[in-house]
Design goal:
Order of helices and strands: HEEEH
Mean pLDDT: 94
Radius of gyration: 12 Å
Largest sheet: 3 strands, antiparallel
Strand order of the largest sheet: 1-2-3
Shape: globular
Distance between the termini: 19 Å
Low-confidence stretches: none
Strand content: 15-25%
Oligomer: single chain
Structural class: alpha+beta
Number of domains: 1
Helix content: 25-40%
Number of helices: 2
Number of strands: 3
Amino acid sequence: MSAKDIEWIEKCKKNPEQYKIYVDNDCVSVCDCKDEDGESVHTFAEYGYYFSLQLLRYIGCNTDMV
């Protein structure tokens, strides 16, 4: 995971009333709940099982792709 992705995960964890993560089959992005337009403020570099792999590694799991 990039430093920017990690920064956004932490922002979302600390501010759930402001940021929401949307998971789609080809995109994982962050939207600002307080923005009336609901525009994405960040799109993660990975999605799908690649995103899952990176997220599990980030939280400290011994993970590998099979």
